[in-house]
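note to self: dont lose this again. the chain is below, predicted strucutre after it. 198 aa total, dont forget to put it in the shared folder this time
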Amino acid sequence: MTGALPAVRSTALRRRGFALEAATLAWNVVGVVVLAVIAIRTGSVAILGFGLDSLIEIGASIVVIWELSGAGEARQARALRLIAVAFLALAVYLTIQSAVALLAQEHPADGPAGILWTGITAVVMFLLAAGKTATGKELGNPVLVSEGRVTVIDGVLAVAVLIGLVLDATLGWWWADPLAALVVVFYAVREAAHILRG
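---
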């Protein structure tokens, strides 16, 4: 717990937590713009979903920065609930979008940009998640640890979207794109449930 740590170490860990969240925030702000452009050009539901997930990651980073700047269990609980609600909203939206895409048999346009961005994003998110989890555990901060899991999920989703895009581009499996979006739904619901259960 934070109280068991020397003040200097606790301050250093908080600074590291802020830096990791700032890096995540910056990456996802750029990512939302990049993914919006790619989604508009290709009509990819998976890219759209991943862009929305990046918006949630932006919100989660802001919530963690807010929580790290204060203290108290009530503040932590409120921060965690905000992250969970955002995940549930994403799950509902993507379920509807994926169902529409599958029923209408919408074929996303090919494009290497989505493949490149999701591949790089996966690596970046896994590295940031490892840093957040280690820092949060040592600091005794459950919000930072939970946000580390959110970042892992962002990396997993990047891989799922990447696989869907590659299958569509190489084999013409148009349905792989909305199915990849449903992977995002599964993880969003699972993470929301995990957070709400505490």
